Automatic annotation (TrEMBL), chains A, B:
Keywords: Cytoplasm, Glycolysis, Kinase, Magnesium, Metal-binding, Transferase. Gene3D superfamilies: 3.40.50.450, Phosphofructokinase domain. The keyword Transferase applies. Catalyzes the phosphorylation of D-fructose 6-phosphate, the first committing step of glycolysis. Uses inorganic phosphate (PPi) as phosphoryl donor instead of ATP like common ATP-dependent phosphofructokinases (ATP-PFKs), which renders the reaction reversible, and can thus function both in glycolysis and gluconeogenesis. Consistently, PPi-PFK can replace the enzymes of both the forward (ATP-PFK) and reverse (fructose-bisphosphatase (FBPase)) reactions. The active site is at residue 145. It comes from Hydrogenoanaerobacterium saccharovorans. This is Pyrophosphate--fructose 6-phosphate 1-phosphotransferase. Residues 5-327 form the Phosphofructokinase domain. It is found in: Cytoplasm. It is an enzyme of class 2 (transferase). Non-allosteric. The record marks 116 as: Important for catalytic activity and substrate specificity. The record marks 142 as: Important for catalytic activity. Substrate binds at residues 143-145, 189-191, 247.
Amino acid sequence: MKKNLLVAQSGGPTAVINASLCGVIREGMRHPEEIGMVYGAVNGIQGILEGTIIRVDDQFETAADFELLCHTPSSALGSCRYKMPSPDKGPEQYAKILAMFRKYNIGYFAYIGGNDSMDTANKIADYCYEHGEEVRVVGVPKTIDNDLPITDHCPGFGSAAKYIATTLMEVAADAEVYPMKSVVIAEIMGRNAGWLTAAASLTRELGGSYAPQLIYLPEAVFDPEQFVEDVRRELDKRDTVVIAVSEGVRLADGSYAAESMQSGQVDAFGHKYLAGVGKYLERLTADRIGCKVRSLELSVMQRAAAHLQSATDLEEAVRAGEKAVEAMLRGDTRIMIAYRRISDAPYRIAYETAPLGEVANVEHKIPRKWINEAGNDVREELVRYLAPLIQGEVSIPMKNGVPMHFSFDKTRLAD
Amino acid sequence: MKKNLLVAQSGGPTAVINASLCGVIREGMRHPEEIGMVYGAVNGIQGILEGTIIRVDDQFETAADFELLCHTPSSALGSCRYKMPSPDKGPEQYAKILAMFRKYNIGYFAYIGGNDSMDTANKIADYCYEHGEEVRVVGVPKTIDNDLPITDHCPGFGSAAKYIATTLMEVAADAEVYPMKSVVIAEIMGRNAGWLTAAASLTRELGGSYAPQLIYLPEAVFDPEQFVEDVRRELDKRDTVVIAVSEGVRLADGSYAAESMQSGQVDAFGHKYLAGVGKYLERLTADRIGCKVRSLELSVMQRAAAHLQSATDLEEAVRAGEKAVEAMLRGDTRIMIAYRRISDAPYRIAYETAPLGEVANVEHKIPRKWINEAGNDVREELVRYLAPLIQGEVSIPMKNGVPMHFSFDKTRLAD
């Protein structure tokens, strides 16, 4: 008997997570002899638990609708940050999921997400297997943080990296106009892994001496005194110094650099002052160097800026979704789609698979040897690794001057 | 005897100030029978005072170089925030400028800038006239704030508006993924005029009910209690509420809303805590409503994002530069190029001129009648005014995945 396909999205948004969703749905619809209907769970695993499951294969009228979905940022099916307990701690939740799979005759389950999501997918696959339910479970990687193991890189990272490099160039151009000493500090996402911050170096591929002049990553110990010296030295060479810093840089004792500024005082509302590392370094620069200084956060813009999708990232994200369906149809389960890099130039990758159990809860960080000894810049090897991932521009659908986004009708629940 | 043309840029950067610069230089070079050489002053009026003047007409090898300049954000000639004293307070500065004009045989001076810059241009024009030096002085408007009088709108505003609307859409998509009540607050530039913040409403031109749901502008009195009520009401209707707020919103007593949070306490460096209105409203929301809340600042990105130039804004900015040269050749002086809107749909404008003296130091704000009575949203008239300004997309020159920018050689000073 033909089985149905269920797809869901989880974790933080990216600019191309919907491209992978498009890949799964469209590829699923290409195999009517093996796959019956394509369902989507609203808000990831939480939607399965709550029974908010919709048909998605009947929500596309034309090929242009699929295109539109590919260029829509964030998770069109909604997301969740629901952490599944182990089956012995939460048996009723697993039973609920199994019941839903049976109710909708699910034989294929594609879960698009990052680290935690792969752990969830793995647990569900194990549980189904132990209970004799044949559901093939395949994970589709997704994270701007680029911190999944085994795979060379992750869908979503390249587009965020392109946004970061482009924005840093523009911010640097903005900062350089006045004839005075000034420092600009850009705080970039990445609590434990510095891949996104390292992407700020991609401006150098243009050949000139582009900003940022200093790059601080969580993989190297952060020393405030060294920072002040670094900035002083760079200010001696030029008027404007642009700095890219990861939100997660830590001192030698392992604490976050920004913590050293938290004074325990409260504001008019009684809330503790909490500032990010950008604000911390801004204050440090003002205090110790005394020049004009500005900090800015690329915030959620860096993960949602679909208008600056990397063509490479977009194509790979779609293909990852398609490959997940192909793998399920081959009979694969408990795996995640992974990229293996064949060469940097010309850039070529192969699509492979990794066991979910080996991906779940493992964080892939930047090798220390790809960071310079002083811990204030990236090495050439890292730029070479990053550069192919942001290549290629995408023409996104626009209407009345702003991007068009796709949205599902999530109110019509499946029977 | 043929005279030379001098051009300079002043004030804060925009995404298209270099497009106006391109218009001036290229048009200047098209009239060799009347204009000798085209010079640029580095860092605006400050460059004239310090004698940092370069040839710019010999720095373009091909038409593509002019194109590149048009797509380069910020001020390629550098900028300044130098406030000229009145001639009786600083006669030596005016004498210096006059001497430079004479040294370089300047007969045409184009100054690209905002409010203060038009004041500077006006003073210089007066001084030259009084001292018998025939220099035709024409201002080219430039400001993301859109607050210059007489002209229908200002070059630079449309591109910033397009960036703001696009970013708000992406940020809203990002915020809407989790099934929980949440509030996102985007702090947008505009200390006295709310045009930029109002541009967040342009997502509505797509026809749906797009974010932001609440828009607060400096032109309407801000009431924190009303804000809390507004947010509560919107949260009753939907999970995610997106708010656009101008950095300059003020309470009934005229003080900035953000000031009410400043507690006078100092951080570990002894600096006073200074937070923007976004952070203030974030705290207010957390304190009074208690849901998930995030604030973000569009910071300098909103004025530097040349990768999202509005085609309309870009074309008009180039034309404003060209028109300035045309006006000077006609014999006009002490004027600024201005746009007059002929119709909204189809959108048509005429290029006119305004006396510098009537432009200098006057701030053009949003008419209160274009804001709704509650002061938490814009009216249809305002959207109709704004919509044409962000129309059209531009394909910017890219290399290795990031935008290419033009730069002048500023080290070779003119003889």
